[in-house]
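Whiteboard transcription, Tuesday session. T.W. wrote the structure tokens on the left side:
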């Protein structure tokens, strides 16, 4: 199974070009779509989910034309949007049953088995009688996964799923997603590099509506390995360092600024060579388009 996106473009009526000739090949497994806010991730996710149209280009899921054959795709799609609306007073079991009914599972007994197994899978069975409004962020996201899995989708789209989750909730959510990813295409859209590093076997970095890189995380890291140097400086020295070096990221550690730069040769001046990580790949790429310090 493969999702093939070719030359996809979209300009909103206000003139913003959210997708600028996007081409991506997405195999089965977890695919991370990484980009800063405003990169065009949600626009791309909504287009793949048939919720909005592109101006030009094509999307094929094997032999299904996603942009034309919307009904077929909707039957094979699970979507967990960023702002997942919940009915606060309805309990999890009733809501899932309702969603299953909407997705065309007519038989009550069949739905009962399905709803129970999904609630077990996302570890919400014991909470099934609770109103959705009482759920924590992590529970909401796990419920979101359960509803996205109704109908056994072959393509699952998850938009910014870990924002607002605490570390243990995030871990549980990671485990759940990685189990699902084995037999389906799961596209995980996020600006959190760690999500992609932990979960995804393939990834792309997009920025300002363009694909800057498509790779496996390890291949991405190999492109900057041996070129990353770090140094702790005072905050007021940042501007002068930015003039002299290709600064790709900064982090405040104990009141000092830890600077990471990219350079083909050892810059000296107190810089120390350091192993590259996926965050370096991300910032190195997006710094070609936007200022990585101010985003
Ligand atoms: P991301 O999900 O990566 O944050 P979006 O796809 O939401 O990016 O947005 C990409 C660009 O398109 C942004 O500049 C955003 O302001 C703009 N945009 C998104 N939706 C609309 C819309 N409905 N009308 C006009 N501009 C939009």
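and on the right, the sequence the group agreed on:
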């Amino acid at each position: 199974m493969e999702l093939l996106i070719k030359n996809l473009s979209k300009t909103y009526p206000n003139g913003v070009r959210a997708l600028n000739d996007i081409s991506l090949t997405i195999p089965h497994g977890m695919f991370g779509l990484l980009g800063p806010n405003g990169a065009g991730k949600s626009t791309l996710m909504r287009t793949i989910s048939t919720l909005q149209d592109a101006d030009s280009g094509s999307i094929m899921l094997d032999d299904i034309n996603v942009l034309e054959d919307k009904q077929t795709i909707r039957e094979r799609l699970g979507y967990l949007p960023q702002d997942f609306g919940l009915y606060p007073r309805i309990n999890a079991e009733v809501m899932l049953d309702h969603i299953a009914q909407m997705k065309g599972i007519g038989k009550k007994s069949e739905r009962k088995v399905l709803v129970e197994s999904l609630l077990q899978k996302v570890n919400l069975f014991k909470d099934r009688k609770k109103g959705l409004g009482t759920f924590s962020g992590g529970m909401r996201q796990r419920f979101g996964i359960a509803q996205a899995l109704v109908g056994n989708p072959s393509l699952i789209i998850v938009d910014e799923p870990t924002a607002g989750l605490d570390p243990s909730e995030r871990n549980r959510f990671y485990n759940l997603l990685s189990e699902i990813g084995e037999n389906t295409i799961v596209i995980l859209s996020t600006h959190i590099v760690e999500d992609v590093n932990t979960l995804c076997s393939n990834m792309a970095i997009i920025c300002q509506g363009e694909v800057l890189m498509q790779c496996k995380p390890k291949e991405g890291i190999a492109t900057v390995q041996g070129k990353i140097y770090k140094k702790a400086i005072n905050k007021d020295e940042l501007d002068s360092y930015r003039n002299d070096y290709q600064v790709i990221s900064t982090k405040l550690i104990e009141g000092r600024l830890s600077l990471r730069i990219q350079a083909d040769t050892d810059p000296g001046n107190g810089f120390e060579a350091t192993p590259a990580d996926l965050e370096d790949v991300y910032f190195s790429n997006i710094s070609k388009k936007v200022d990585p310090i101010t985003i």
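Someone added at the bottom: The mean pLDDT is 92.
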